[in-house]
Amino acid sequence: MAVDHVNLTVEEGTVFGLIGPNGAGKSTIIRSILGLIPYESGNVLVSGTDMRNANAQRKLKVGYLPQKAAFQEWRTTEQALQILGRLSGLKGDRLKSRIEEVLEQLGIEEYRDRKVSKLSGGTIQKLGFAQAILHEPSVLVLDEPMASLDPASRFQFKKMIKELSDSGTTVLFSSHILSDIEDLVDSVGLLQSGKVRYSGPISGLEKKAALRSELVVELADERGEWRSVNLPGVDISQPSPGYLLMHIDDPERWDATVPKIVEALVRAGCNIRSFNRHNPKLEDIYMAYVGGSN
Amino acid sequence: MSLALLIKDEMNGFYRSKAMLALFIGMPLVAMLLYFLTPDLEGMPIGAFTALMISSMAGLLASTTLAVSLINERSNGVYDLFLVRPVRRSHILLAKYVAVVACVMIAAALALLLANGYDWFNQGAVELTALGEPMLVTITMACVSCAVAVLVGSLLKSVLAGVILTIYGGNQVSAVIVLTSLQNIMSIEAAAIIGLTISAIVLCVALVVFNRKLNS
């Protein structure tokens, strides 16, 4: 069983990030949301509609960009958008103007008459994004949308997702590129081996992971007995000469603890050049979750 | 609504793909070539010869094309983008089937007309009613083999296995049905009815399969 007892809620108008290592079940969840694969029990509802029902798509417009968007190879870029637009119910001038808009938004106008079989992977992905937003869906589902893109295109995708979200589109996207998630999402779901390990706002993930904030102290010289400093809830190590790394177990008590650390270091004879707070990145949290169970 | 759109789109696809070229130009050409190269035809007119050729070739070409495109498109995930839109799974399959059978019919009619036109030009008189029977045979065979192709295309993942099964399962079975009439076991009409019934049943099974295991 790929996915077991998953319970996730995506609020309307928000951006939700589904993260997890390869094979965690991200695509499986996405495909069951869209009604593309059967599931044994439970419900997946989008705005209260079961997407397995063929009529559901009539009521609710959903845009979908698969991990690898595929089109029949005999089509040109424009023809691919034409048939998918028509199937979404777009017609005539409206269809034409929408195609112009999305081609321009994604910067692929020059490939308009090129056959899909002659497009590069990145351009196909852009075409995939174009068809996903062509019919102005209220729900946009993106499965690892940026995995095969260069940095410039990645930036472009992020900007577009941000704009769509600002205009009220609900966006659900999966990724294992964590910096993408961090910039964009309102809340995250962390998946591992088909189970939800966390679901909620990113800040909550930080708390739940109980990751300790770090204080980085730069020393002016090698004098000072920092090893003798012993404070409860503080863990000192030296990752490289001239630097001390301090983990504080309870980030809530940061303000009370930091002056004590500094005081103790000075008393131990350390010459402090600078100190800096290092908050846990999503990357660290992710590793703490995923790595912790192995 | 989506069905009509999909059929039109499939026809468009066939028109743009090379398979169509083989069907429309290749078939009459091969028939002609074989006619002139076959040593002893006992005075058989080219019209009758082409009819024979077409009934065996048209279904074969169409069904293998159908099976291959179905397997490829399924495994690439082409249909996912259709299915998140108001499109029924069954319509995707039906559209493919209808489009291919329609193309075969047009191609067969074209080849027959060409060959008989040649006969008419050379001999002056051609019995046009004689065109009915080969057309019926061709259509029956195409319907049966394409139905099998659709089933194979919905079931298998391997293109090679799909082609082999389509040729043996589809084409040979359809030949068996038609041969019964040539051996005078039953009339050609009866054979056609049996053939069309079988294709309908196979098509229904294919639809059920396609609905269930599109992506697995």
Molecular structure report:
Chain A has 294 residues and is an alpha/beta fold. Chain A has helices spanning 26-33, 56-59, 77-87, 92-105, 121-133, 151-166, 178-184, 202-208, 254-267, 282-292; strands at 15-19, 45-46, 49-50, 62-65, 139-143, 170-175, 187-192, 195-201, 213-219, 234-237, 243-248, 272-278. Chain B has 216 residues and is mainly alpha-helical. At the A-B interface, strand 4 and helix 3 of A face helix 1 and helix 4 of B.
Topology:
The complex is a heterodimer of chains A (294) and B (216).
Chain A (H helix, E strand, L loop, with lengths): L14 E5 L6 H8 L11 E2 L2 E2 L5 H4 L2 E4 L11 H11 L4 H14 L15 H13 L5 E5 L7 H16 L3 E6 L2 H7 L2 E6 L2 E7 H7 L4 E7 L14 E4 L5 E6 L5 H14 L4 E7 L3 H11 L2
Parallel strand pairs in A: 1-6, 1-7, 4-5, 5-6
Antiparallel strand pairs in A: 2-3, 7-8, 9-11, 9-12, 10-11
Helix pairs in contact in A: 4-5
Chain B lengths: L1 H15 L1 H20 L8 H31 L1 H6 L5 H35 L8 H24 L3 H24 L5 H25 L4
Low-confidence stretches of chain B: none
Instruction: State the distance separating the first and last CA atoms of chain A.
Output: 20 Å
Mean pLDDT of chain A comes to 83
Tell me the strand order in the biggest sheet of chain A. 4-5-6-1-7-8
Radius of gyration of chain A: 24 Å
The shape of chain B is globular
Structural class of chain B: mainly alpha
The string of secondary-structure elements of chain B, in order, is HHHHHHHH
Number of helical runs of chain A? 10
The proportion of residues in beta strands of chain B is under 5%
Concise structural overview:
The complex is a heterodimer of chains A (294) and B (216). By secondary structure, chain A is of the alpha/beta class.
Which characteristics define this entry?
heterodimer, A: 294 residues, alpha/beta, six-stranded mixed β-sheet, four-stranded antiparallel β-sheet, 10 helices, B: 216 residues, mainly alpha, 83% helix, globular
